[in-house]
Amino acid sequence: MSQVPRKPEFFLYTRLGQNETKNLKKAATNRDERKVLAQIFNLKTLTSDAPYESLDKIEILKLDFHYINYNFCKENYFSNEKTSTLIAMLEAVLNKMLERQLSSQQGYAMLRQYLADHSI
Fold it and tell me: Closest Cα partner for 34 from 44, 45, 22, 46?
């Protein structure tokens, strides 16, 4: 029985569009960057008019996760395309790990596969 080949996923501008990536780079402060990321990832309690009245701890963790990943991209001078792609990959890994209760080793293997699929 032959195995069906796995279709690779591609992430360029799937989660962060060109304008969103540019808005992140234009943000003047860390707080502005976090606000843009909260909007991009639809973290509702963090983008509402009164975000600190009912904080969602999961959303705070997700925002921190995305902020750390964005800082990595910034510190390594990633282009808009690379930033968009990596952040979308990492979000996909995080979401699948949470949905399926995967181990860190399984998440790491998934990320390595995504990176291999995107390499030249």
Answer: 46
Is residue 4 pLDDT above 70, yes or no?
no
Whether the Cβ atoms of residue 111 and residue 85 lie closer than 8 Å to each other: no
Under 8 Å between Cβ of 62 and 43: yes
How many structural domains is the chain composed of? 1
Note the pTM of the prediction, 2 decimals.
Answer: 0.80
53-73 residue pLDDT tens? 567 788 889 999 999 999 999
Which range of residues forms the domain containing residue 46?
18-118
Task: Determine contact, residues 21/71, Cβ cutoff 8 Å.
Answer: no
Residue 3 located in a structural domain: no
Q: How many helices (H) and strands (E) does the chain have?
A: 6, 0
